[in-house]
Amino acid sequence: MNGLFPSLRQRTRWLAGLMGAVLLFGWINLSVGAEHLSPYQVWRALQAAGPSYANDLVEARLSRALLAIATGAALAVAGTLLQNLTRNPLSEPGLLGINAGAAASLVTAGLVLGSLPAGAFWLALPGALFVAVLVGVQSAYRQHDPSHLLLLGAALNAVLFAYVQAITLTHPALFANYRFWIVGSINGHTLDEAQRLLGWIAVGLGLSFILPRFLHVLQMGDGVTKALGLNAGCLRLAVLSGSALLAAISTATVGPIAFVGLAVPLLAKKIAGHYLYWQLAIALVMGPLMMILADLLARLLLSPSEIMTGILTALLGAPFLLVAVRINQRGV
Question: What stretches pass through the bilayer (predicted)?
Answer without folding.
Answer: 12-30, 62-82, 94-113, 119-137, 149-169, 237-264, 276-298, 310-327
